[in-house]
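Researcher: Can you fold this with adenosine-5'-triphosphate in place?
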Amino acid sequence: GKKIAVMTSGGDSPGMSGAVRAVVRQTLASGCISFAVYEGYQGLVDGGDMIKKMAWEDVRGWLSEGGTLIGTARCKAFMERPGRLTAANNMIEKGIDALVICGGDGSLTGADKFRAEWPGLMDELVQKGLRKEEEVRAHRHLNIVGLVGSIDNDLSGTDATIGCYSSLERICQAIDYIDATALSHQRAFVIEVMGRHCGWLALMAGVSCGADFIFIPENPPSENWEDDMCNVVKKHREMGKRKTIIIVAEGAHDRQLNHISPNQVKDLLSDRVGLDTRVTTLGHVQRGGPPSAYDRMLATLQGVEAVKAVLDSTPETESPVICIVENKIVRKPLVDAIAKTKEVAAMIERKDFAGAMKGRDAEFEE
Ligand code: ATP
């Protein structure tokens, strides 16, 4: 049977373990041989025991586990061609020429580059005497399928990434806890949430928790945002609200063009509105814990689809990424999804916020 490997790469997200479970089991159910690559691309470069053959029971119980049980890493060596040559050699040693990768845009970019280079890498392995011609003959084509695992929900072309709804759930829970104490003391809280350059988590947390004001990178505040925010908060207080919740997306804080720091917001609320204000950075609890039911479902359905995509592929097929669009699991060209995602990031960079908002939702077809 065909040998199909699965790996997780980049930042971890809840549901990644469930995705690995689905890929392993669908691989076996299809009569193929399953492998897991441990510690992301580092495992491919290191080879040996890091590329482990998987049995049905090896992934038992993984659906409800947070993070990724096969580990993830950021790997410098894989960024360079010699690292990828070593990785290819390790794969040929095991007879693997199909790889399902669950990760963010960086990981998927690396995967597609690997696929494009693969025939050249095969030639080089033979030229360097590392592999015999007959060893590589059956593996002239590398099959890549992407699964999007990220809490940020930052990939264009898919409505949800594996992990984003679990993270949102966790953020809402944390804000509920903060709400209770804020309400008791009539305090204001400025809460920083994750999401890198994407404001989805902050926006949806704001909607889900009834925040008073949010800051996201896609929609930077106006010139007089300080007055705007203070007026909104004052108005809410005058209406009888005993607590104030302001959400600052990590991207709104970090980006140079849109540098809203939680402490700056806190000082405004203290000095100009007269509120007893605290800052809470939620940090890595947002990434941890068991996946929500939605992410377990998404990871399972997409993992199954990824294996089907591997089995359907021909040397002419473009690498697909498995998406969810309007509740349907669909395949899209991986390169297009990444290009669109990068385009949106560039739009934010040059302050084309309307374009960025549109681009996040944009549909594109083959
Ligand atoms: P997250 O969005 O959670 O950070 P990510 O997949 O975008 O996840 P990255 O750190 O960008 O995370 O990428 C993970 C790894 O993928 C890198 O450490 C590197 O090994 C590999 N990689 C990323 N980009 C490339 C590339 N252009 N060429 C080759 N390998 C790459």
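Model: Folded with adenosine-5'-triphosphate in place. The pocket of adenosine-5'-triphosphate is lined by residues 9-11, 41, 74-75, 78-79, 103-107, 109-110, 113, 150 (CB under 6 Å).
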